[in-house]
Specification:
heterodimer; A: 332 residues; mainly alpha; ABC transporter involved in vitamin B12 uptake, BtuC; two-stranded antiparallel ribbon; 15 helices; globular; B: 334 residues; 14 helices; 78% helix
């Protein structure tokens, strides 16, 4: 009886819920942007006057490397994989450049680092694509190999004086006119290529195809192993670029510099709406996800919360957002 | 040929069959044990002084990762994965260390029981979140690894605390024969007390069933959600034992998680547990952990750079998995 009486009410609320759900499902970036705006407003309320061009620039500068690393996760997650080796590869890249500054020079260092990263990505890609090793295991093993080799390299290089080259410091930490981080010079073209590539390029569509339905992709002529090898090389190169930026930003070059960003990079991709099961998601959401994580973490530190609380909230947010996604995508 | 011999022969044939299938089923573990034996001989050859102290050191250094591998094995067999094991260990480690510092030995017993219970709760939270939210387990446990690590930092911001004397004594030294390290005995007892009853029970069978084919398990009446949560609860329990072993062997609490989550995944794969679920046991991963540690020891004996040891560990992991999946691909084709 009460069901009949309340029917109109539930229907209208059901409609709005359905509309919201559709919005969340088809354009996840809209609710994410709203969440980001809420967080920015919250930051301003908590610390009046904190939101300024300076603040925005600093947040952007911190979010750019995370967004690139999260881009590695997005691309690999689209195919149903994951890249846990980004931390080791990125640290290695920044470290190699720093050790080669005084000798062969920065440009050579960057080339060497990129080649090393590409090799690591190639091996990972062959493992995942040809030998069909689980990406989790393959990238985990690869990060052990890269970390170990970087350590060996460190012992070889311990005599030479090394440091983060001024070029990378400029690229990673400088602000143009006090509001625009220089790292956007790297990030904007990269993001444009990824965003357009995922939408328009044949290769971008192949990533979705391989992740969504590998059998259908194979039957329609996609060679998954080639797609995967190229993918993991791209991912490693992007990780290396992020490594350059992070070592420039922090003015530190160490073999474990980026390790703490690996899990946040996965988190940013998940918050951005990319499914870890493959076939669903995109880079736009990931960028917003990285911004959200950056703002949350600076909001919490401006509130004086210790690192511990930040981590607990971080984890809870990921579960909550992922649960919301699962709910709206599976109930349709 | 009288009629009486026929059944005997069939029985013998059946026994041989059983033996054959048992070897086949345990081929991986037998291979691992054989490799371990070879490795021990090799160690003795390159370092003739390797003996009692070496074995004891090996047992103690292996204990936390061996228990972490057992924890990971249970959940992987059920078709899941738990990336929060390292963080759970850190949390249990600091809770135990904080509560035990300066307290009586008897209170230490209560603390151990309490932290084991806490492990069950942590596992239940992980499992319930995985089942209720329907989010992929890798995402949930990754997120929970932040949560548990944060809790550990809240409990104890910097390394400190203490351990009850009996707990430390439990894993150091040897029992009876000096060749039998206490840490190894503890490991065997924990695994035997927790895993064997589960393995033989209906619940244990359902953990294998949901790992092997979730739909088939559901249709044959297994409560899939409950079994998944049970697997995570067991993982939490093993992680609690692993965390306590950290308290026991280091004597303090350290709030920063070690590399146990990812290393345990590696050990599980090397130990013959399929990441797809439903295959393997707890024993193989533990042997794999011992092998990995022994390789590290050997490389220090050979004066190899310890960093190269990390490289070798990674290469072994990749190599074994590659060979394993090659065999699977071959089998699928033929």
């Amino acid at each position: 009886m009460s069901g009949v009486a309340s029917a109109p009410g539930t229907r209208s609320s059901g409609l709005t819920a359905a509309a919201l759900r559709g919005l969340f499902r088809d354009r996840p970036i809209v609710p994410l942007l709203i969440l980001l705006a809420v967080l920015v407003v919250l930051s301003e309320l908590v610390r009046p006057g904190i939101v300024s061009p300076d603040w925005i620039a600093v947040e952007l500068r911190a979010a750019v490397p995370l967004a690139i690393l999260a881009g590695c996760q997005t691309l690999t997650m689209l195919t149903g994989g994951i890249d846990l080796s980004v931390g080791a590869v990125a640290s290695m890249a920044g470290f190699v450049v720093a050790t080669l500054v005084s000798g062969p020079g920065t440009p050579t260092g960057i080339v060497v680092a990129l080649v090393a990263a590409a090799l690591a990505g190639l091996v990972t890609g062959i493992g995942v694509g040809v030998f069909r090793v689980h990406p989790l295991i393959m990238t985990l093993g690869m990060s052990l190999v890269v970390l170990g080799l970087a350590n060996v390299w460190q012992l070889q290089m311990v005599q030479t004086n090394s440091g983060v080259p001024p070029e990378l410091r400029w690229l990673g930490s400088q602000l143009v006119l006090g509001i625009l981080p220089v790292s956007l010079l790297v990030f904007v073209p990269l993001a444009a290529v990824i965003l357009l590539g995922l939408r328009r390029a044949g290769y971008g569509r192949l990533l979705y195809a391989v992740g969504d339905n590998p059998i259908a992709a194979r039957l329609s002529g996609a060679r998954a192993w080639q797609v995967l090898i190229v993918l993991y090389v791209i991912s490693a190169l992007m990780a290396a670029v992020a490594g350059f930026l992070i070592s420039g930003l922090t003015n530190v070059a160490s073999v474990s510099l980026v390790d703490t960003s690996v899990l946040p990079s996965v988190a940013a991709a998940v918050i951005g709406g990319t499914s870890i099961m493959g076939g669903r998601g995109g880079f736009g959401g990931t960028i917003v996800g990285a911004l959200i994580l950056t703002v949350v973490s600076s909001l919490l530190s401006s509130l004086g919360y210790p690192e511990a609380v930040r981590q607990v909230l971080f984890g809870s947010i990921i579960v909550a957002v992922a649960a919301a996604y699962t709910r709206v995508t599976s109930e349709s | 040929m009288s009629a009486a011999t026929a059944p005997v022969e069939t029985r013998r044939a059946r026994a041989a069959d059983l033996l054959g299938s048992a070897t086949q089923r345990n081929a991986w573990i037998l291979g691992l044990l054989g490799f371990l034996a070879l490795l021990l001989v090799f160690t003795k050859l390159i370092q003739p002084r390797y003996g009692v102290t070496g074995v004891q050191g090996l047992a103690i250094s292996v204990l936390p990762l061996a228990l972490a591998a057992a924890a990971q094995a249970v959940v992987v067999i059920s078709g899941g994965i738990d990336l929060s094991i390292g963080s759970m260990m850190a949390l249990i480690n600091v809770v135990a260390a904080v509560l035990m510092k300066g307290q009586s030995e008897e209170f230490g017993v209560a603390v151990v029981l309490g932290t084991l219970l806490l492990g069950l709760v942590l596992g239940a939270v992980n499992g319930s979140l995985v089942v209720l939210t329907r989010v992929p387990d890798i995402v949930v446990t990754l997120a929970m690894s932040f949560v548990w690590a944060g809790c550990a930092l809240l409990v104890l911001p910097t390394p400190g605390g203490g351990s009850a004397k009996w707990l430390t004594a439990l894993v150091t030294g040897s029992l009876g024969n000096e060749w039998i390290p206490k840490a190894a005995v503890v490991l065997v007892i924990i695994v035997a007390l927790v895993w064997i009853p589960v393995r033989r029970s209906r619940q244990g069978l359902s953990i294998y069933a949901i790992g092997s084919n979730r739909l088939a398990a559901l249709r044959s009446g297994v409560s899939v959600g409950r079994s998944r949560i049970l697997a995570y609860v067991l993982t939490g329990l093993f992680a609690a034992f692993a965390g306590l072993s950290l308290t026991a062997s280091t004597g303090i609490g350290t709030p920063v998680p070690g590399p146990y989550s990812l290393m345990s995944v590696a050990a599980v794969v090397l130990g013959g547990v399929s990441l797809a679920g439903g295959l393997g046991g707890v024993f193989g991963p533990i042997v794999a952990v011992v092998i990995l540690q022994l390789i590290r020891t050997d490389m220090t004996f050979l004066n190899v750079n310890t960093n190269l040891a990390t490289v070798v560990q990674g290469l072994i992991l990749i190599g074994v998995v590659m060979v394993g999946s090659l065999i699977q691909i071959r089998r699928a084709r033929s």
